[in-house]
């Protein structure tokens, strides 16, 4: 169990638990909702939150984690921007006896004792859900079905796994062809820019857009309209997150489907932080449950959406 320097168990001490959280940035609607969830859950739980925004740069995350170690916080949590390159700093946290919780994205480290728990979605399954929806949608088509893909941040767990899961499903039928695939870094601006390039290169040959998040799809929808094409009609559009912006696009008939990925990880993170500090066991993996929303149900579901 983690105890105070004097050896008084945490549970009996008056001091507030201090949590250092390194967030990736503010690249998407998903991320903004995630930050909000963490901040408000910390407040509700009476946990003192030291929050650092890495502006999508790994070096900033490493710096933030080092500063949390120097400040001797009780627990460190972070959402790793990419999977690799965190081994050294995680070893430093372990040497300082500060437990680390991963939220949202995984790291790729050999030594699994470098983190205590990982909570977040199954991104491979999200990719599969997107693939299965497409296979069903296109079952009457002879093909070829030309797909362009907007990938998330290079080297990030969701970009790697959403690509993998989607490909796993569509490869069963050779009529599906990914003709272009490039990163849009999970942002609207990049999604639009890359879609413009796809349209220039492939023009009317494009049948499907698969975007690793809603924001890139929303940016791409603009590019499609500016090219004089009808989103969700001339080009079938699939994306992931199911944020409010995606529901709005679906209600306007511009996005076909969004696979859900919940950013509301705050309450379960605070619970895990309390448990870790109290020396209670926490599950190594906590998987978020999620659904899929095609445009036909968007108007009915919209009022119930929390992010
Ligand atoms: O899908 C995307 C965000 O890591 C699950 O990051 C998260 C992803 C989310 O920027 O919108």
TrEMBL record:
<comment type="similarity">
    <text>Belongs to the bacterial solute-binding protein 2 family.</text>
</comment>
<protein>
    <submittedName>
        <fullName>ABC transporter substrate-binding protein</fullName>
    </submittedName>
</protein>
<dbReference type="InterPro" id="IPR028082">
    <property type="entry name" value="Peripla_BP_I"/>
</dbReference>
<keyword id="KW-0732">Signal</keyword>
<feature type="domain" description="Periplasmic binding protein">
    <location>
        <begin position="20"/>
        <end position="280"/>
    </location>
</feature>
<dbReference type="InterPro" id="IPR006311">
    <property type="entry name" value="TAT_signal"/>
</dbReference>
<dbReference type="InterPro" id="IPR025997">
    <property type="entry name" value="SBP_2_dom"/>
</dbReference>
<dbReference type="Pfam" id="PF13407">
    <property type="entry name" value="Peripla_BP_4"/>
</dbReference>
